[in-house]
Amino acid sequence: MEDRIYWLGWQFLMPGTGKRLWSLVEHFGSPRAAWEAGLKELSKAPRLGLEGAEGLARRRSQIDPTREASRLDSLGITFACHTDPHYPENLLQIYDPPPVVFLKGQIKSSDSLSIAIVGSRKPSPYGRAVAEKLAVDLAALGITIVSGMARGIDTEAHRGALAGGGRTLAVLGCGLDVVYPRENLRLMEQIAGRGAVISEFPPGSPPEAWHFPVRNRIISGLSRGTVVVEASERSGALITADFALEQGRDVMAVPGNVVNALSRGPHRLIKQGARLVEGAGDILDEIGLEKLFPVPEAGQGGKMKMSGEEQALYSLLSLEPVSLDELISKSGLAPQKVMAALMYLEIKGLTRQLPGKFYTRAGRDLF
Asked: Among 215, 235, 213, which Cα is nearest to 153's?
């Protein structure tokens, strides 16, 4: 228990440093010995030197681990030390796990069966639909969905997991008292209620640019495999895929339109040997679980009932945006009936309205 509070102090002091923090504590033999080390002793630690030791000692003097533990409690945030039974099992297996992670929500043993779904912050309607559909199908089978709660593919993955009645974990690149992006406040609350929001950065930490590549190793580290859905060739999603490879985890990618720049990242991964994903069954097969969790074939129940007018409009929709005027023209229905049917289709999760009164199919009934 004593080590636990000192590990917490070091996590506040050196978040996101991975192996450097482990090396420092290993040098002194325990987190308490490292915390109590004087300036001369610190200067002899690996990769510190006198200047580095002075800065570290100065910042350390401003942190009281016991007081910080109380502050976490007041914020509704818990923490899991790497020695705790509720520390994520998969994360322990990577070479540089954070000694402590901060949590809103709860980690369960079943979360070891998890898949990361990541991709562009500005995906196409196709990318959004595929990410949501994969998450819905996997979550319905009891597989936890991991992502980073960013705009775009991450958000769709979390929403799909919730829609599928499953669990989801969101890994942040900031403190858990900082909502980023702001529009995901409600989503963050839902994730904490049906899984966990996780960060290695203490409360108050802003979403700095360098935090996100660091947090990506945790997204892949929590997961049995990582699926990339739409990503440019210089994308954080590809950094996550690289971490997954380094960690010995499976990497998979969804193919896309060859003229879409966001297809280049997944296509490059596929050329390099990543598993091509067309549905949840491909993911289950890649991680060796297809026989344990068979995915229903298309048309085998679970389809949402639609009225004749809804069916007529739904048949005119695809993943390419269609304008309201075009739907009215092609359906031959009165405008008010088209609007009513589209509203019910959206409520049922079958369509998505885009800015400018354009509509597409949603991902839940995609394949």
From this structure: 235
Give 72: exposed, middle or buried? Use CB within 10 Å, 0-12, 13-18, 19+: buried
Report residue 318's pLDDT band, with 50, 70 and 90 as the boundaries. Answer: confident
- pLDDT at position 300: 41
**For 15-66, what is each residue's pLDDT tens digit?**
999 889 999 999 999 999 999 999 999 999 988 889 999 999 999 999 999 9
**For residues 331 and 357, what is the distance between their CA atoms, to the nearest angstrom?**
16
* CA-based nearest residue to 351, from 308, 317, 326: 317
Gap between the terminal Cα atoms of the chain: 50
Q: Is 46 inside any structural domain?
A: yes
Q: Do 259 and 113 fall into the same domain? A: yes
205 to 114, 180, 296, 306: CA distances (angstroms): 27, 11, 43, 47
Helix (H) or strand (E) holding 105: strand 100-105
Residue 363's pLDDT band, with cuts at 50, 70 and 90, is: low
- Residue 150 has which token pair? 């960013």
pLDDT at 1: 61
- Provide DSSP, 144-171: EEEE---TTHHHHHHHHHHHTT--EEEE
Separation of CA 244 from chain center: 13
* Domain CATH code at residue 346: 1.10.10.10
Cα Dmax for the chain: 83
Name the amino acid, one letter, at 182: R
pLDDT at 299: 43
- Of the three residues 251, 286, 321, the one that is the final residue of a domain is 286
Number of domains comprising the chain: 3
DSSP β-bridge partners for residue 251: 226
Give the domain extent around 174.
109-286
Residue 229: what are its φ and ψ, rounded to 5°? -120, 105
Q: And the tokens for 13?
A: 């002091």
Rg (CA), the chain: 23
Q: What are phi and psi of 130, to 5 degrees?
A: -65, -45
State if pTM tops 0.85. no
Same domain, 315 and 169: no
